[in-house]
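Appendix B. Raw example, untouched.
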Amino acid sequence: MSVRNLVKTIQDIMRQDSGVDGDAQRISQLCWMFFLKIIDDKDEELELMQPGYESPVPERFRWRAWAADPESITGEALLAFIDNDLFPALKKIRPTGQHANRARVVRDVFKDANNYMKSGQLMRQVVNKINGIDFNNLTERQHFGDIYEQILNDLQSAGNAGEYYTPRAVTAFMADRIDPKPGETLFDPACGTGGFLTCSLRHMRARYVKQPSDEPKMQAALRAVEKKQLPHMLCVTNMLLHDIGDPSFVRHENTLARPYIGWERKDRVDIVLTNPPFGGKEEDGIESNFPQHFRTKETADLFLALIVRLLKPGGRAAVVLPDGSLFGEGVKTRLKEHLMEECNLHTIVRLPNSVFKPYASIGTNLLFFEKGEATKDIWFYEHLVPEGQKAYSMTKPIKLEHLQPCIDWWGGATRKGRKETDRAWKVTAEKIKSRGYNLDIKNPHTTEDDHGDPQELLAKLAAAEAEAASLRDQLKAILAEALLR
Protein backbone atom coordinates (compact mmCIF):
# COMPACT_ATOMS: atom_id res chain seq x y z
CA MET A 1 0.00 0.00 0.00
CA SER A 2 1.31 3.45 -0.92
CA VAL A 3 1.95 5.99 1.83
CA ARG A 4 -0.86 8.19 0.44
CA ASN A 5 -3.40 5.35 0.56
CA LEU A 6 -2.18 4.32 4.01
CA VAL A 7 -2.76 7.80 5.43
CA LYS A 8 -6.20 7.93 3.78
CA THR A 9 -7.04 4.57 5.39
CA ILE A 10 -5.98 5.91 8.80
CA GLN A 11 -8.21 8.96 8.37
CA ASP A 12 -11.14 6.73 7.36
CA ILE A 13 -10.68 4.63 10.51
CA MET A 14 -10.65 7.76 12.67
CA ARG A 15 -13.92 8.95 11.12
CA GLN A 16 -15.60 5.91 12.67
CA ASP A 17 -14.57 6.99 16.19
CA SER A 18 -17.22 9.01 18.06
CA GLY A 19 -14.60 10.94 20.03
CA VAL A 20 -12.91 12.59 17.04
CA ASP A 21 -14.97 15.59 15.98
CA GLY A 22 -13.91 17.35 12.78
CA ASP A 23 -10.70 17.95 10.83
CA ALA A 24 -8.81 19.84 13.54
CA GLN A 25 -9.20 17.05 16.12
CA ARG A 26 -8.42 14.35 13.58
CA ILE A 27 -5.25 16.16 12.49
CA SER A 28 -4.22 16.69 16.13
CA GLN A 29 -4.80 13.00 16.89
CA LEU A 30 -2.84 11.91 13.83
CA CYS A 31 0.00 14.24 14.69
CA TRP A 32 0.85 13.09 18.21
CA MET A 33 0.78 9.48 17.05
CA PHE A 34 2.98 10.20 14.04
CA PHE A 35 5.29 12.23 16.29
CA LEU A 36 5.82 9.30 18.69
CA LYS A 37 6.52 6.92 15.82
CA ILE A 38 8.93 9.35 14.13
CA ILE A 39 10.81 10.16 17.35
CA ASP A 40 11.14 6.44 18.15
CA ASP A 41 12.40 5.60 14.64
CA LYS A 42 14.95 8.41 14.98
CA ASP A 43 15.96 7.16 18.43
CA GLU A 44 16.58 3.67 17.04
CA GLU A 45 18.77 5.18 14.33
CA LEU A 46 20.72 7.23 16.91
CA GLU A 47 21.20 4.14 19.09
CA LEU A 48 22.95 2.44 16.16
CA MET A 49 25.04 5.47 15.22
CA GLN A 50 25.95 6.76 18.69
CA PRO A 51 27.12 4.12 21.18
CA GLY A 52 25.62 4.83 24.59
CA TYR A 53 22.74 6.94 23.25
CA GLU A 54 19.53 6.52 25.23
CA SER A 55 16.17 7.96 24.29
CA PRO A 56 14.77 10.60 26.69
CA VAL A 57 11.42 8.77 26.44
CA PRO A 58 11.13 6.22 29.26
CA GLU A 59 11.41 2.68 27.87
CA ARG A 60 7.81 1.71 28.73
CA PHE A 61 6.42 4.63 26.70
CA ARG A 62 8.51 4.28 23.56
CA TRP A 63 6.48 3.43 20.47
CA ARG A 64 8.30 0.13 20.02
CA ALA A 65 7.34 -0.97 23.55
CA TRP A 66 3.54 -0.66 23.32
CA ALA A 67 2.61 -0.02 19.69
CA ALA A 68 4.96 -1.94 17.38
CA ASP A 69 3.55 -5.43 18.09
CA PRO A 70 0.21 -5.72 16.21
CA GLU A 71 -0.92 -8.32 18.76
CA SER A 72 -0.16 -6.08 21.76
CA ILE A 73 -2.75 -4.41 24.02
CA THR A 74 -5.98 -3.17 22.48
CA GLY A 75 -9.50 -2.14 23.50
CA GLU A 76 -10.08 -0.68 26.96
CA ALA A 77 -6.59 -1.69 28.13
CA LEU A 78 -4.98 0.35 25.33
CA LEU A 79 -7.14 3.40 26.03
CA ALA A 80 -6.41 3.19 29.76
CA PHE A 81 -2.66 2.96 29.08
CA ILE A 82 -2.70 5.99 26.77
CA ASP A 83 -4.96 8.19 28.92
CA ASN A 84 -3.71 7.22 32.38
CA ASP A 85 -0.06 6.33 31.81
CA LEU A 86 1.39 7.52 28.49
CA PHE A 87 0.07 11.09 28.39
CA PRO A 88 0.74 11.94 32.08
CA ALA A 89 4.29 10.55 31.81
CA LEU A 90 5.21 12.41 28.62
CA LYS A 91 3.75 15.68 29.91
CA LYS A 92 6.11 15.45 32.91
CA ILE A 93 9.38 14.41 31.23
CA ARG A 94 12.24 16.34 32.83
CA PRO A 95 14.68 17.89 30.30
CA THR A 96 17.95 16.93 31.97
CA GLY A 97 21.22 15.37 30.93
CA GLN A 98 22.88 15.10 27.55
CA HIS A 99 19.61 14.94 25.61
CA ALA A 100 17.68 17.60 27.52
CA ASN A 101 16.65 19.37 24.32
CA ARG A 102 15.11 16.20 22.91
CA ALA A 103 13.25 15.62 26.17
CA ARG A 104 11.95 19.20 26.11
CA VAL A 105 10.60 18.65 22.60
CA VAL A 106 8.61 15.61 23.73
CA ARG A 107 7.31 17.39 26.84
CA ASP A 108 6.27 20.52 24.92
CA VAL A 109 4.50 18.49 22.23
CA PHE A 110 2.42 16.63 24.82
CA LYS A 111 1.99 19.56 27.21
CA ASP A 112 -1.50 20.42 25.94
CA ALA A 113 -2.14 17.46 23.62
CA ASN A 114 -5.20 15.25 23.94
CA ASN A 115 -6.27 11.76 22.98
CA TYR A 116 -9.68 12.19 21.36
CA MET A 117 -10.31 8.57 20.35
CA LYS A 118 -12.83 6.61 22.43
CA SER A 119 -12.52 3.19 20.84
CA GLY A 120 -9.50 1.13 21.80
CA GLN A 121 -10.16 -1.26 18.90
CA LEU A 122 -10.08 1.57 16.36
CA MET A 123 -7.02 2.99 18.11
CA ARG A 124 -5.21 -0.33 17.65
CA GLN A 125 -6.16 -0.36 13.95
CA VAL A 126 -4.68 3.14 13.52
CA VAL A 127 -1.51 2.20 15.42
CA ASN A 128 -1.03 -0.89 13.25
CA LYS A 129 -1.40 1.17 10.08
CA ILE A 130 1.15 3.74 11.31
CA ASN A 131 3.57 0.87 11.88
CA GLY A 132 3.55 0.44 8.10
CA ILE A 133 5.65 3.60 7.68
CA ASP A 134 9.41 3.42 8.23
CA PHE A 135 10.54 6.98 8.91
CA ASN A 136 14.18 5.92 8.69
CA ASN A 137 13.60 5.01 5.05
CA LEU A 138 14.43 8.20 3.13
CA THR A 139 12.02 7.52 0.26
CA GLU A 140 9.12 6.70 2.59
CA ARG A 141 9.86 9.75 4.73
CA GLN A 142 9.90 12.01 1.68
CA HIS A 143 6.62 10.54 0.43
CA PHE A 144 5.10 10.99 3.85
CA GLY A 145 6.40 14.55 3.96
CA ASP A 146 4.37 15.30 0.83
CA ILE A 147 1.28 13.73 2.40
CA TYR A 148 1.88 15.64 5.63
CA GLU A 149 1.91 18.86 3.63
CA GLN A 150 -1.55 17.98 2.31
CA ILE A 151 -2.72 17.25 5.87
CA LEU A 152 -1.54 20.73 6.87
CA ASN A 153 -3.30 22.17 3.83
CA ASP A 154 -6.52 20.58 5.15
CA LEU A 155 -6.25 22.95 8.11
CA GLN A 156 -7.47 25.75 5.86
CA SER A 157 -10.96 24.25 6.03
CA ALA A 158 -10.73 23.20 9.70
CA GLY A 159 -12.48 26.18 11.29
CA ASN A 160 -10.22 28.46 13.33
CA ALA A 161 -7.29 26.11 12.76
CA GLY A 162 -6.93 27.71 9.31
CA GLU A 163 -5.10 30.63 10.90
CA TYR A 164 -2.03 28.44 11.37
CA TYR A 165 -1.49 27.74 7.68
CA THR A 166 -0.03 30.09 5.07
CA PRO A 167 -0.36 28.89 1.44
CA ARG A 168 2.93 27.26 0.49
CA ALA A 169 3.17 29.25 -2.73
CA VAL A 170 3.32 32.40 -0.58
CA THR A 171 5.89 31.03 1.89
CA ALA A 172 8.05 29.66 -0.93
CA PHE A 173 7.94 32.99 -2.79
CA MET A 174 8.89 34.97 0.32
CA ALA A 175 11.74 32.60 1.20
CA ASP A 176 13.03 32.76 -2.37
CA ARG A 177 13.02 36.58 -2.40
CA ILE A 178 14.72 36.84 1.03
CA ASP A 179 17.30 34.24 -0.04
CA PRO A 180 18.50 32.87 3.37
CA LYS A 181 21.93 31.26 3.61
CA PRO A 182 23.38 28.68 6.04
CA GLY A 183 24.60 30.38 9.20
CA GLU A 184 22.25 33.36 8.95
CA THR A 185 19.94 33.38 11.98
CA LEU A 186 16.41 32.96 10.68
CA PHE A 187 13.48 33.61 13.02
CA ASP A 188 9.74 33.07 12.69
CA PRO A 189 8.12 34.52 15.84
CA ALA A 190 4.69 33.06 15.01
CA CYS A 191 5.66 29.94 13.09
CA GLY A 192 2.35 28.06 12.90
CA THR A 193 2.96 24.70 11.23
CA GLY A 194 6.46 25.70 10.07
CA GLY A 195 5.85 26.65 6.44
CA PHE A 196 8.45 29.43 6.31
CA LEU A 197 10.99 27.15 7.97
CA THR A 198 10.47 24.25 5.57
CA CYS A 199 10.56 26.51 2.51
CA SER A 200 13.76 28.13 3.78
CA LEU A 201 15.31 24.70 4.36
CA ARG A 202 14.46 23.60 0.82
CA HIS A 203 15.80 26.86 -0.57
CA MET A 204 19.13 26.61 1.27
CA ARG A 205 19.61 22.90 0.59
CA ALA A 206 18.99 23.44 -3.11
CA ARG A 207 21.33 26.46 -3.47
CA TYR A 208 23.86 26.60 -0.67
CA VAL A 209 24.32 23.31 1.22
CA LYS A 210 27.28 21.94 -0.72
CA GLN A 211 29.60 20.46 1.93
CA PRO A 212 29.07 18.53 5.20
CA SER A 213 29.60 21.57 7.45
CA ASP A 214 26.82 23.56 5.74
CA GLU A 215 23.94 21.44 7.05
CA PRO A 216 24.69 21.73 10.80
CA LYS A 217 25.49 25.43 10.33
CA MET A 218 22.09 25.93 8.73
CA GLN A 219 20.17 23.97 11.37
CA ALA A 220 21.92 25.71 14.28
CA ALA A 221 20.78 29.13 13.02
CA LEU A 222 17.03 28.41 13.01
CA ARG A 223 14.71 30.07 15.56
CA ALA A 224 10.94 29.74 15.93
CA VAL A 225 8.13 30.28 18.44
CA GLU A 226 4.51 29.15 18.38
CA LYS A 227 1.96 30.08 21.00
CA LYS A 228 -0.71 27.40 20.43
CA GLN A 229 -0.43 23.68 21.06
CA LEU A 230 -1.76 22.19 17.81
CA PRO A 231 0.41 24.16 15.37
CA HIS A 232 3.43 23.75 17.68
CA MET A 233 3.02 19.98 17.56
CA LEU A 234 2.50 20.06 13.79
CA CYS A 235 5.60 22.22 13.34
CA VAL A 236 7.89 20.02 15.44
CA THR A 237 6.74 16.95 13.51
CA ASN A 238 7.29 18.89 10.28
CA MET A 239 10.87 19.65 11.31
CA LEU A 240 11.58 15.98 12.05
CA LEU A 241 10.21 15.04 8.63
CA HIS A 242 12.57 17.61 7.08
CA ASP A 243 15.62 15.97 8.68
CA ILE A 244 16.09 18.44 11.52
CA GLY A 245 17.97 16.48 14.16
CA ASP A 246 17.09 18.79 17.07
CA PRO A 247 13.77 20.65 16.65
CA SER A 248 13.95 22.07 20.18
CA PHE A 249 14.50 25.52 18.64
CA VAL A 250 10.72 25.54 18.02
CA ARG A 251 9.55 27.01 21.32
CA HIS A 252 6.02 26.61 22.69
CA GLU A 253 5.62 30.16 23.99
CA ASN A 254 4.04 33.52 23.23
CA THR A 255 6.69 35.72 21.60
CA LEU A 256 4.81 38.87 22.65
CA ALA A 257 4.81 37.89 26.34
CA ARG A 258 8.49 38.82 26.57
CA PRO A 259 9.02 42.55 27.27
CA TYR A 260 10.06 44.60 24.25
CA ILE A 261 13.19 45.87 25.99
CA GLY A 262 13.99 42.30 27.07
CA TRP A 263 15.08 41.51 23.51
CA GLU A 264 18.74 42.46 23.72
CA ARG A 265 21.48 42.84 21.15
CA LYS A 266 22.43 39.17 21.51
CA ASP A 267 18.88 38.23 20.47
CA ARG A 268 19.05 40.07 17.14
CA VAL A 269 18.63 38.01 13.97
CA ASP A 270 19.61 38.25 10.31
CA ILE A 271 16.23 37.28 8.86
CA VAL A 272 12.58 37.34 9.92
CA LEU A 273 10.07 35.45 7.80
CA THR A 274 6.56 35.38 9.24
CA ASN A 275 2.82 35.67 8.88
CA PRO A 276 1.79 37.06 12.29
CA PRO A 277 -1.81 36.46 13.39
CA PHE A 278 -4.05 39.34 12.38
CA GLY A 279 -7.62 40.27 13.10
CA GLY A 280 -7.33 39.06 16.70
CA LYS A 281 -6.65 40.76 19.99
CA GLU A 282 -3.95 39.91 22.48
CA GLU A 283 -4.80 39.01 26.07
CA ASP A 284 -4.92 41.76 28.69
CA GLY A 285 -1.51 42.98 29.79
CA ILE A 286 0.49 41.89 26.73
CA GLU A 287 0.49 45.40 25.26
CA SER A 288 2.11 46.72 28.45
CA ASN A 289 5.28 44.87 27.38
CA PHE A 290 5.67 47.49 24.65
CA PRO A 291 6.56 51.20 24.71
CA GLN A 292 3.58 53.48 25.23
CA HIS A 293 3.50 54.78 21.64
CA PHE A 294 3.26 51.21 20.26
CA ARG A 295 0.68 49.86 22.69
CA THR A 296 -2.31 48.13 21.12
CA LYS A 297 -4.15 44.82 21.43
CA GLU A 298 -3.90 44.20 17.68
CA THR A 299 -1.51 41.24 17.38
CA ALA A 300 -0.11 42.05 13.93
CA ASP A 301 0.86 45.58 15.02
CA LEU A 302 2.74 44.33 18.08
CA PHE A 303 4.63 41.81 15.95
CA LEU A 304 5.62 44.47 13.43
CA ALA A 305 7.05 46.67 16.20
CA LEU A 306 9.00 43.72 17.58
CA ILE A 307 10.31 42.59 14.18
CA VAL A 308 11.91 46.00 13.56
CA ARG A 309 13.66 45.74 16.92
CA LEU A 310 14.79 42.14 16.36
CA LEU A 311 16.61 42.68 13.08
CA LYS A 312 20.36 43.21 13.10
CA PRO A 313 21.75 46.15 11.10
CA GLY A 314 21.53 44.91 7.53
CA GLY A 315 18.98 42.28 8.53
CA ARG A 316 16.06 41.63 6.23
CA ALA A 317 12.44 40.63 6.67
CA ALA A 318 9.38 39.52 4.75
CA VAL A 319 6.06 39.83 6.59
CA VAL A 320 2.42 39.16 5.68
CA LEU A 321 0.11 41.99 6.79
CA PRO A 322 -3.58 42.75 6.12
CA ASP A 323 -4.82 45.84 4.27
CA GLY A 324 -5.84 47.37 7.60
CA SER A 325 -2.20 47.69 8.63
CA LEU A 326 -1.51 49.73 5.50
CA PHE A 327 -4.24 52.36 5.88
CA GLY A 328 -4.88 52.27 9.66
CA GLU A 329 -4.30 55.32 11.82
CA GLY A 330 -3.17 56.00 15.39
CA VAL A 331 -0.72 53.33 16.55
CA LYS A 332 -0.60 51.95 13.02
CA THR A 333 0.58 55.31 11.69
CA ARG A 334 3.33 55.53 14.32
CA LEU A 335 4.42 51.98 13.48
CA LYS A 336 4.66 52.72 9.75
CA GLU A 337 6.63 55.88 10.43
CA HIS A 338 8.98 53.92 12.71
CA LEU A 339 9.34 51.16 10.10
CA MET A 340 10.22 53.61 7.33
CA GLU A 341 12.70 55.51 9.50
CA GLU A 342 14.51 52.40 10.78
CA CYS A 343 14.27 50.25 7.66
CA ASN A 344 14.25 50.41 3.90
CA LEU A 345 10.72 49.25 3.09
CA HIS A 346 11.60 48.57 -0.53
CA THR A 347 8.74 46.38 -1.78
CA ILE A 348 5.06 45.73 -1.06
CA VAL A 349 3.38 42.93 -2.99
CA ARG A 350 -0.39 43.33 -2.93
CA LEU A 351 -2.36 40.07 -2.98
CA PRO A 352 -6.03 39.55 -3.89
CA ASN A 353 -8.63 38.87 -1.19
CA SER A 354 -9.01 35.20 -2.07
CA VAL A 355 -5.43 34.01 -1.37
CA PHE A 356 -6.25 32.90 2.19
CA LYS A 357 -9.74 31.53 1.46
CA PRO A 358 -11.66 29.95 3.07
CA TYR A 359 -10.07 30.97 6.39
CA ALA A 360 -9.96 34.68 5.57
CA SER A 361 -11.26 36.76 2.68
CA ILE A 362 -9.43 40.04 3.22
CA GLY A 363 -6.72 41.74 1.22
CA THR A 364 -3.20 40.85 2.31
CA ASN A 365 0.22 42.26 1.51
CA LEU A 366 3.80 41.03 1.57
CA LEU A 367 6.16 43.65 3.02
CA PHE A 368 9.89 43.31 2.30
CA PHE A 369 12.31 45.51 4.24
CA GLU A 370 15.94 45.79 5.40
CA LYS A 371 17.17 47.29 8.67
CA GLY A 372 19.64 50.15 8.78
CA GLU A 373 18.66 52.74 6.17
CA ALA A 374 15.54 54.88 5.99
CA THR A 375 13.06 54.29 3.19
CA LYS A 376 13.48 56.50 0.11
CA ASP A 377 11.11 54.81 -2.33
CA ILE A 378 8.64 51.94 -2.12
CA TRP A 379 7.90 49.71 -5.07
CA PHE A 380 4.39 48.27 -5.20
CA TYR A 381 3.51 45.16 -7.19
CA GLU A 382 -0.10 44.07 -7.69
CA HIS A 383 -0.55 40.31 -8.02
CA LEU A 384 -3.70 39.40 -9.93
CA VAL A 385 -5.70 36.18 -10.05
CA PRO A 386 -4.81 34.22 -13.23
CA GLU A 387 -6.77 35.15 -16.33
CA GLY A 388 -9.96 33.14 -16.69
CA GLN A 389 -10.22 32.58 -12.93
CA LYS A 390 -12.45 34.79 -10.76
CA ALA A 391 -10.71 34.01 -7.46
CA TYR A 392 -8.45 31.57 -5.69
CA SER A 393 -10.19 28.75 -3.84
CA MET A 394 -9.57 25.39 -2.14
CA THR A 395 -9.82 23.64 -5.52
CA LYS A 396 -7.87 26.35 -7.36
CA PRO A 397 -5.31 27.70 -4.85
CA ILE A 398 -2.47 30.10 -5.51
CA LYS A 399 0.62 28.36 -6.92
CA LEU A 400 4.25 29.48 -7.06
CA GLU A 401 4.06 29.66 -10.86
CA HIS A 402 1.37 32.34 -10.47
CA LEU A 403 3.98 34.52 -8.74
CA GLN A 404 6.62 34.00 -11.43
CA PRO A 405 5.83 37.34 -13.18
CA CYS A 406 6.71 39.12 -9.92
CA ILE A 407 9.95 37.14 -9.64
CA ASP A 408 10.82 38.06 -13.23
CA TRP A 409 10.13 41.74 -12.50
CA TRP A 410 11.98 41.76 -9.14
CA GLY A 411 15.40 42.59 -10.53
CA GLY A 412 17.56 39.97 -8.82
CA ALA A 413 19.25 40.32 -5.43
CA THR A 414 20.07 43.99 -5.97
CA ARG A 415 16.59 44.83 -7.28
CA LYS A 416 18.19 47.03 -9.96
CA GLY A 417 16.57 47.50 -13.31
CA ARG A 418 13.01 47.54 -11.99
CA LYS A 419 10.56 49.29 -14.27
CA GLU A 420 7.01 50.50 -13.92
CA THR A 421 4.53 48.18 -15.61
CA ASP A 422 0.77 47.74 -15.61
CA ARG A 423 1.29 45.86 -12.33
CA ALA A 424 4.22 47.73 -10.75
CA TRP A 425 4.66 51.33 -9.62
CA LYS A 426 7.00 53.36 -7.40
CA VAL A 427 6.06 55.86 -4.68
CA THR A 428 8.49 58.16 -2.88
CA ALA A 429 8.79 58.24 0.90
CA GLU A 430 7.92 61.94 0.82
CA LYS A 431 4.59 61.18 -0.83
CA ILE A 432 3.88 58.48 1.77
CA LYS A 433 4.58 61.00 4.55
CA SER A 434 2.27 63.55 2.93
CA ARG A 435 -0.47 60.92 3.00
CA GLY A 436 -0.08 60.45 6.75
CA TYR A 437 1.85 57.18 6.17
CA ASN A 438 -1.12 55.62 4.42
CA LEU A 439 0.41 52.77 2.41
CA ASP A 440 -2.87 51.65 0.88
CA ILE A 441 -1.98 52.93 -2.58
CA LYS A 442 -3.97 51.55 -5.48
CA ASN A 443 -2.47 50.66 -8.82
CA PRO A 444 -2.35 53.95 -10.80
CA HIS A 445 -2.28 52.00 -14.08
CA THR A 446 -5.68 50.44 -13.47
CA THR A 447 -8.57 52.15 -15.20
CA GLU A 448 -11.58 52.39 -12.93
CA ASP A 449 -14.84 51.13 -14.38
CA ASP A 450 -17.09 53.97 -15.62
CA HIS A 451 -20.26 53.68 -13.57
CA GLY A 452 -21.83 56.84 -15.06
CA ASP A 453 -22.49 60.40 -13.91
CA PRO A 454 -23.12 60.51 -10.12
CA GLN A 455 -25.93 63.06 -10.45
CA GLU A 456 -27.75 60.93 -13.01
CA LEU A 457 -27.31 57.84 -10.84
CA LEU A 458 -28.73 59.67 -7.79
CA ALA A 459 -31.72 60.88 -9.84
CA LYS A 460 -32.42 57.33 -11.04
CA LEU A 461 -32.12 56.03 -7.46
CA ALA A 462 -34.61 58.66 -6.22
CA ALA A 463 -37.06 57.76 -8.99
CA ALA A 464 -36.75 54.07 -8.21
CA GLU A 465 -37.34 54.69 -4.49
CA ALA A 466 -40.43 56.85 -5.28
CA GLU A 467 -41.83 54.11 -7.53
CA ALA A 468 -41.22 51.51 -4.80
CA ALA A 469 -43.02 53.71 -2.25
CA SER A 470 -46.00 54.14 -4.60
CA LEU A 471 -46.26 50.39 -5.17
CA ARG A 472 -46.02 49.78 -1.42
CA ASP A 473 -48.92 52.22 -0.80
CA GLN A 474 -51.04 50.53 -3.47
CA LEU A 475 -50.38 47.14 -1.90
CA LYS A 476 -51.37 48.43 1.55
CA ALA A 477 -54.65 49.82 0.14
CA ILE A 478 -55.47 46.51 -1.55
CA LEU A 479 -54.78 44.55 1.66
CA ALA A 480 -56.83 47.00 3.78
CA GLU A 481 -59.79 46.71 1.38
CA ALA A 482 -59.57 42.92 1.46
CA LEU A 483 -59.65 42.84 5.28
CA LEU A 484 -62.85 44.99 5.37
CA ARG A 485 -64.80 42.57 3.17
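End of appendix B.
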